[in-house]
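Q: Can someone sanity-check these two? First one:
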Amino acid sequence: MGNHTTTAVPAPGVFLKDELEERGWSQRDLAYVLGCPEQAVNMIISGKRGISPEMAKALGKAFDVPAEFFVNLQTAHDLSKASDPDPGVECRAMLQRHFPIREMIKRGWLEDTDSEMLSVQVARFFKVEKLDQVPHLRYAAKKTHYDETPPVQLAWLFRVRQVAESITVPAYSERKLREAVEQLRRLIAAPEETRQVARLLGECGVRFVIVESLPSAKIDGVCLWLDKQSPVIGMSMSRDRIDNFWFVLRHEIEHVLQKHGQKTECLDVELSEDGAANANEPDDERIANTAAADFCVPTAPMNDFIARVRPFFSEQRVVLFAQRMNVHPGLVVGQIQRRTNNHAFLKRYQVKVRQFVVPAATVDGFGQVAPVNL
């Protein structure tokens, strides 16, 4: 049995005994009133038996009080006798209330251990000394920009950073990255060529990490810097389509080229892949969106094609236009789908590329756990 911290509450029988003395009744008298054996009354008064809901109703009628009075007496007594719960219950509940702790354990980001060690792990995961310094768990500590990032997205972001720290690459070169963009553009017509992305980025000094998204996170990618010379591109690949992959990748590359995300990570959620301007969009996102859209399908020819062909987007015209642009038809199809709001149009061309990207990249998720130590 565990320790008891609740003040002991007398058994309901103590109240019954006092009440009988007050009324001048014997136990046999009460048994007669209740219409039950005298032994049943004796066992309640001696504390050997609790008060059942049925007995509570009967006693309520006998003493002219609500039945809940006796129910509450019994409940208070039972609670005072109950063992204290595992102290970890409160801690685990607090952590799970704010972060997807169970999912993080399932994914191998944290070990399933006692609450004290779990608290230490969570603090290390978020790179703070104490649990009460973790974003969203703070009480009186100063807030940071992380407090405005939903917890499930924040957990994903920190996992990307952890995995990236385990990768060794040459010194970052902006010149090489710009040259790599041209190389990548020549690969865009063949889905299987996506396997070269991790290598090309690594040769430029860019750490490329794929971390499977957490449920409901809706993250596409992130650009962050371990320091001012160490850029990281993280992707979730939650939308496994060739057009989404190339758009998100080029979007994050532009963030790196523009040195976005050095102070605050550029966390991209549900990116719009047509490069359409949004009045509320920050300048860095507008710049990255424009570069990504033009990379996937050059904007001017795409606009011209839409204007000439709409509403008769035949498969033959789409394929011929894609060949002329030296892109996979899936990229053109994606543009048409979004501009016409017809997401079923030639959907078979939006082929999956995760199968090619993952084997050649540093990956956490999709059945793999990156070797990261807390």
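And here is the second, same format, sequence then tokens:
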Amino acid sequence: MNELISISEASRLLGVTIKTLKIWDNEGKLKAHRTLGGHRRYRLSDIEKLLEIENQNTERNVFIYCRVSTKKQQQSGNLERQKQRLIDYCNERQYNVVHIFI
């Protein structure tokens, strides 16, 4: 049996927004199955297949942009914490950080 998952779970697994999934459904990139109530459900096997294709065909290079609004925020360490959180996020998702803009 092919497991169906919710749109929020598919969004989490793919690392894209729910809005993106809806666009992909409309474009035919990743078709959703509708419940009787009209909710979108995705086949887990389709998600896994798309992840394999994405990992094979794309470089996952990213640029990080960090900023604070005031000198006080910078002095209290907000900028460094923000930078570290973004680096951790990229590392968890196996993105290659090309450059950090501060």
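A (reply): Looked at the second one. Residues 2 and 44 are 7 Å apart (CA to CA). The chain is about 50% helix and 20% strand.
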